Amino acid sequence: xxxxxxxxxxxxxxxxxxxxxxxxxxxxxxxxxxxxxxxxxxxxxxxxxxxxxxxxxxxxxxxxxxxxxxxxxxxxxxxxxxxxxxxxxxxxxxxxxxxxxxxxxxxxxxxxx
Amino acid sequence: xxxxxxxxxxxxxxxxxxxxxxxxxxxxxxxxxxxxxxxxxxxxxxxxxxxxxxxxxxxxxxxxxxxxxxxxxxxxxxxxxxxxxxxxxxxx
Lengths: 113, 92
Description:
The complex is a heterodimer. By secondary structure, chain A is mainly alpha-helical. Chain A has one domain: Ferredoxin Thioredoxin Reductase, CATH 3.90.460. Helix content of chain A is about 45%, strand content about 5%. Chain A has 5 helices and 2 strands. Chain A has a two-stranded antiparallel ribbon with strand order 1-2. Chain B is built from 3 helices and 5 strands. Chain B has one domain: Glutaredoxin, CATH 3.40.30.10. In chain B, a hairpin with a 3-residue loop joins β4 (about 70-75) and β5 (about 75-80). The N and C termini of chain B lie far apart (about 30 Å). Chain B is globular. Chain B has helices at about 25-35, 50-60, 85-90, and strands at about 5, 15-20, 40-45, 70-75, 75-80. Chain B is of the alpha+beta class. Chain B has a 5-stranded mixed sheet with strand order 1-3-2-4-5, with helices on one face. The interface of A and B includes residues 42, 60 and 90 of A.
């Protein structure tokens, strides 16, 4: 595992895959390109560090069993989307936000461990 | 702890516990920098594994949820998350 920074091309490719998967699953990614690219960069870095894409906005234990609930898409995405219109890191947002009706804001942490 | 000092103005001590990968943490640092405020921070995810637990104990003393960014002001007051409106109130 390495901390080498992913390239812009890697970020672009991963973002393309995530966008496709989101569309197929009925989800929307944050239309704020800078925000979304930063998150994808974090996901790629965490994959290199830990071997899985844990949420960039949460501290991973580095143990897949402990971190299972925060592997993106995390276990809290759907309840957070339903209650706040975005997931914790705001990679996934509501259809309204995706259409430009407002911006994703930081939301409370739902994880308890 | 690998504490980074960012030079700037201001007469409050601002210390951030952050993650190097966290967008809200990056936005908080960027906001402080734009306001030219001095602050210090530690990227907890980059701390050596044997030190992370001790650093997280410090974070939880201020913010029991252990979320990021956790901001300690003057060593005792605590702010959690990227909240520009609150920042304006507290830091200006």
